[in-house]
Design goal:
By secondary structure, the chain is α+β, with helices and mostly antiparallel strands. It is built from eight helices and ten strands.
């Protein structure tokens, strides 16, 4: 648990992942705690941390790299939520080492990553960290879909384009098994999932994040096994659109 940029409680799992003892973790300074996160992932992790403390919407799960005490780099999955501790906000988190899963996934599956990025696009009006989470969620779903099928061609395509009306469109397409045309809207329902495992909240939360930016997220089922998820964002200076809010029910 983290409060006021210091670790209040830590357990043996965090100790095993980080290489630090529990006692060493609990006396890390705020700067040492920041340096614990790999430099390229630091902004994502700490922006999410501050947003949760402020009560802003953020995905509960986040994967990022850490620097162990011995200097080696590991991938960690963090499940975090805001709580009240002694009358003040704090972040309660559980973690797991997912290094073995992250590094070889694309290579092991024989997936070709295709980037079709338009040039000279206007700047998007958005929270970069939140939209990064949406994109990573869509790409992660695509990898899972292709790992479960025997498609002769496995392509993950990420594309961007100007969508008119001062908007930018981002698309994530894959050649894996996707939802049928009848289910392309239901996949955004809270707790609906076509996976054997999972809670079914990733796409619902991603849609809420996009709509909070004045954009739109939807799915398209192409012929065969191909599918594509698209979302739009307003460009800087564009008039903000209002969308019906999609709520996540919590029990």
């Amino acid at each position: 648990m983290i409060q006021d940029e210091r670790v209040v409680f830590a357990n043996h799992v965090m100790s095993q992942i980080s290489g630090y003892t529990v006692e060493e973790i609990q006396v890390l300074s705020p700067q040492e705690l920041r340096d614990f996160v790999y430099s390229e992932d630091r902004r994502l992790v700490w922006d999410n941390h501050i947003a949760r403390l402020d009560g802003r919407m953020r995905p509960e799960n986040c994967e990022f790299r850490i620097v162990r005490k011995d200097g080696t780099v590991r991938w960690m999955e963090l499940h975090a939520c805001r709580i009240e501790y002694e009358g003040r906000p704090a972040i309660h988190a559980t973690c797991a080492d997912v290094t073995a899963r992250m590094q070889p996934q694309i290579a092991r599956l024989g997936i070709a990553v295709v980037r079709d990025l338009a040039e000279d696009l206007p700047k998007a009006r958005c929270d970069a960290v939140g939209i990064q989470q949406v994109t990573l969620n869509l790409m992660g779903n695509a990898l899972e879909a292709m790992s479960e099928c025997q498609a002769p061609v496995r392509n993950l395509t990420v594309s961007t384009r100007a969508a008119g009306d001062n908007k930018i469109e981002i698309a994530v397409a894959d050649t894996g098994r996707g939802p049928s045309a009848q289910l392309t809207e239901r996949v955004f329902d809270s707790f609906f999932t076509t996976k054997n495992e999972g809670l079914g909240i990733g796409l619902s939360l991603s849609r809420r994040i996009v709509e909070a930016h004045g954009g739109r997220l939807w799915a398209e089922a192409n012929e065969g096994s191909d599918k594509v998820f698209r979302f739009t964002l307003p460009a800087e200076g564009a008039k903000r659109e209002q969308h019906k809010t999609h709520c996540i029910c919590r029990r």
